[in-house]
Structures are given as C-alpha cells and as structure tokens.
Specification:
The protein has two helices and nine strands. The protein has about 170 residues and is α+β, with helices and mostly antiparallel strands. It has a domain of about 110 residues. It has a seven-stranded antiparallel sheet with strand order 4-5-6-1-7-8-9, covered by helices on one side. A two-stranded antiparallel sheet has the order 2-3. It is globular, with a radius of gyration of 18 Å. The two termini are about 35 Å apart.
Length: about 170
Amino acid sequence: MADLHEVLITAELSAELSEAEISELRWHLGHGPKPEELTIVTDRLPLVTVDDEGEPLPEDRWEIDAYPLLTGRGPADPRVGGVVFSELARRDAPADAGWALSSRQVLHGDDLTLLTQLLRWLQERAVGYGGGPVCFSCHSRFHEDDLVLKPVSLDGEDLVIHEILVLQKV
C-alpha cells in the first residue's frame, strides 16, 4: 500500500536570501542543478547500501542519497488527482522585494522527515508581503483521507498535521 501525502506550500521569502540559498532552493524545486554544498536539508538523509541490482555494497562504497524534494511536474498520482508543480518567483517592487514560492506535491511518507527540515528553513525566512503578517503556510492530507487539506505546523523535529472539523448540512 502506498503512503502518499498531498502537500501544498506557500511562502513569501526575504529578499536577503544569499545566492547559495536561492540556488539550493531552486534545486529542491526542480529549477536548477544540485549545488556542491547542501545546507537546507542535511539531517537524516537516506544511505545507499545496495547497488542497482539490490546487492549489498562494501561499507566504503555507501553513499548519502541527497535528492530534491519538490520537483514534481504535471499530472499528480491519480489517487491524489490534479497537477503537481513548484514555482519560485522574484518580487522586484522596491518596497516589497523578495521571493514568492508555491508548491503542490505528492510525497511518500518516507520523505516527511526531510520535508520538515525544508519547511523549518522556509518558515525561518518567511516575511510578510506589504508589511503584513508573515506569509508561510503548509497543508497536507494522506491520499486515502477526505479531499480536505489539513493545516501543518512544526513542533521541534516533528511535522504535525492538525485535524479540522468539517460541517455538513443534514
């Protein structure tokens, strides 16, 4: 059985992001090459211990498998529906310069720990557009649940998906 999660992320990010941070973020969104040094998602990366045929590798050939998280494009898995995408756009208005980010993805449950690191990084760099409140949101749902996205928050190293009350007219 698949452990698929629909994830929707929206953020307004500071204009003060470094070129290295933007490059790595673009890589995570599928818009650029892998940077030489990764600084956003660095903990609990999977370790490759078998070769392409599934045979165990000697320990000196094990490799860390760092991969971008939000690169999906086009039709989503049919169990989720819709389209997956990721966009990062520069805001050039002098008073509100920065970066606008939106991403809708279908991720496997194994990726949620890595997603938590990326979300924390985004949350720490989120700003308010036009002097308003900080703009950062993430919503998610398990693919077998109702078609209602649930708000997500970060609690330490944990990703918390909150239940919501859906009222139905009888």
